Every structure is written in C-alpha cells, then in structure tokens.
Amino acid sequence: MPDPPARPGTLFVVATPLGHLEDLTLRALRVLREASLVACEDTRRTGTLLRAHAVATPTTSYFEQNERWKGERILDGVLSGRAVQLGCEAR
C-alpha cells in the first residue's frame, strides 16, 4: 500500500544525498515536493538537489548555530498545520 500524501502539521525527517543527486528515494522526492518548507543544514547544497529534481519547495537553513531559535520557528510552522521536511545530511 503506498504512503499517504504529506499531511499538514507533519514533520518529515528525510536523509538527503551528499554526493550523488540520484541517490534519493521516490518517497523522499514526494515528501520534498509536497512539503510546505524544507529545513536543511546547507540551503545551497539542498537547492542544487531540489533544482535537479524540479522541486520548487522553499528552503530555510537549520544547523547547530541557529537550531535554538530556528527550531522554534520550524516547530511553530508544524503546529500551525504546515508539512515541514527536515533534511539530514550524513557526514
């Protein structure tokens, strides 16, 4: 049975590829397309990934130095009904 579409008020944690833009699952690609916002460590790198897959979802940075205040804003978005995708880059 296929997964249901992204629902408002949901935080999706999705591993994103570092070196090969094609190393992305169909499910991850669907979530990237259906989310209201993509929170990521590096918006430039994630922007390259999104452009390669013709995804127009807006991005925001989310990393160690801004996690306290940015995390609150991201959580507020989820609590207000937005579907947010949190991209995790493996290092």
Task: Describe the overall structure.
With 91 residues, the chain is an alpha/beta fold. It contains 3 helices and 4 strands. The chain has a 4-stranded parallel β-sheet, with helices on both faces. Helix 2 links the parallel strand 2 and strand 3. The protein is globular, with a radius of gyration of 13 Å.
Secondary structure layout:
Elements: E1 10-16, H1 26-34, E2 37-40, H2 43-52, E3 59-61, H3 67-79, E4 83-89
Parallel strand pairs: 1-4, 2-3, 2-4
- Please report the distance between the alpha carbons of the first and last residues: 32 Å
What structural category arises from helix and sheet content? alpha/beta
Number of strands: 4
Low-confidence stretches: none
- Order of adjacent strands in the largest pleated sheet: 1-4-2-3
Q: What is the quaternary state of this protein?
A: single chain
Helix-residue proportion:
25-40%
Number of helices: 3
Shape: globular
Quick synopsis:
This protein is of the alpha/beta class and 91 residues long.
Label this structure with key terms:
91 residues, alpha/beta, 4-stranded parallel sheet, globular
